[in-house]
Write a structure and sequence with these properties.
Mean pLDDT: 87
Number of strands: 0
Largest sheet: none
Radius of gyration: 26 Å
Structural class: mainly alpha
Strand content: under 5%
Helix content: 55-70%
Distance between the termini: 69 Å
Length: 376
């Protein structure tokens, strides 16, 4: 065997080892690492699947939101189930190169041995100690990757169920789509304007869980609600707007729980936005522009006053206070609504614009335009 052949085999083994380790690392970062971590393999897969879904929507001329929602409802599950296939294929190719470099016959014979070992089929055999050890190692990796996925699915669907329970209950309180005016009118009609504290505490916990699950289990961002008119982004926006409006415009005692809920909410949305590389002002000024206009605020203020709700007499100050809260989450809320193709939601997806795509870990839907803080 010449020096050139030896070097070629060493290079093939090194490439094979790298490919195997890259596939294992991708699975670990996605399913095991308990924090947000960008992975190019996962990103490439989700982008490729997103392009296929966009192409399908375009070819079938699906123009309504309901039609797009039905198609996109299976986008995240399909992408998620394709991940193990990609990882197993990566491991198969890596070991194929290693076996071939070690002299396991032809390329096809190396492929047969790698596939038989990875899927524990056992139809391809080898005689040397080194290759047998590699066969056992590859079989262990294949079983481990499959076991990780099996244990991962209950985790992600448990988090999805907890998220959607609160979203569904919000519809009872704030209508469909949920909106601050509906929420206040219903609480006022029941004589429970002093009982918002329970709602704020519930959603403070919801936002904390949202931040944890939607950055460590990123596929959850794309899981849509069982009902097409519900969505976690529009629900989050409605709660934040309600808390901001109530503490600013309603003539009620100071409510620290509402303010804590707002802070919990915009921190959670910002963390998710950070994972997707969205641009926003991390330290906005209270008088920075927002996507809500003063006339829109006044319409809700007047409607609630006409319904008999006690409002703060200084409407100008109420508007400034509301804008000072809204500016903290305005940009990220609209960007997330655009990215996830959220259904219609007043003061959120009804004005969301398609945002700048940078190096996002998961594919974005639609063309991209820049978003700036408070601009429509």
């Amino acid at each position: 065997m010449s020096i050139f052949e030896i070097l070629a085999r060493i290079v093939l083994i090194a490439i094979g080892v790298y490919i195997v380790l890259r596939g294992i690392s991708s699975a670990m970062r996605t399913f095991v690492l308990p924090r947000a971590a960008y992975d190019p393999i996962v990103a490439a897969l989700f982008r490729a699947v997103a392009r296929l879904f966009r192409l399908y929507i375009k070819v079938r001329h699906i123009d309504t939101y309901e039609g797009r929602d039905r198609v996109m409802a299976i986008y995240a599950p399909v992408s998620l189930l394709l991940l193990p296939t990609v990882w197993l294929t990566t491991v198969l190719i890596g070991f194929l190169l290693i076996y071939w470099a070690l002299g396991i016959g032809t390329l096809f014979e190396a492929f047969s041995l790698s596939g038989s070992s990875l899927l524990t089929l056992g139809f391809a055999l080898t005689d040397t100690f080194l290759t047998k050890a590699l066969v056992f190692l590859e079989a262990t990796i294949g079983i481990t990757l499959t076991a990780i996925l099996i244990s991962y699915l209950p985790t992600i669907y448990s988090a999805f169920s907890r998220r959607e329970s609160a979203v569904a209950m919000l519809e009872v309180r704030a209508g469909s789509p949920p909106f601050v005016q509906t929420l206040v009118e219903r609480y006022h009609g029941l004589g429970r304007l002093d009982k918002f504290v329970d709602l704020w505490k519930q959603w403070e916990v919801w936002f904390a869980e949202l931040e944890e699950t939607h950055t460590s289990l990123v596929a959850l961002v794309w899981f849509r609600s069982p009902q097409p008119h519900r969505h976690w982004v529009t629900a989050a926006g409605a709660v934040l707007d309600s808390a901001s409006f109530i503490v600013s415009a309603l003539d009620l005692p100071r409510d620290p729980d509402a303010q804590i809920c707002i802070r919990s909410g915009f921190i959670a949305l910002r963390r998710i936005a950070d994972f997707f590389g969205m641009e926003y002002n991390p330290d906005p000024k209270p008088d920075d522009p927002i996507s809500i206009t003063r006339s829109e605020f006044d319409i809700v203020y007047k409607a609630l006053a006409d319904a008999g709700v006690a409002m703060r007499p200084d409407r100008d100050q109420a508007w400034r206070d509301f804008a000072g809260w809204r500016v903290n989450y305005d940009t990220v809320l609209l960007s997330l609504a655009a990215m996830t193709i959220a259904p219609y939601g007043t003061w959120s997806s009804d004005r969301s614009v398609l945002h700048t795509r940078r190096s996002y870990p998961i594919a974005q839907i639609g063309s991209q335009n820049g978003v700036r803080n408070g601009q429509r």
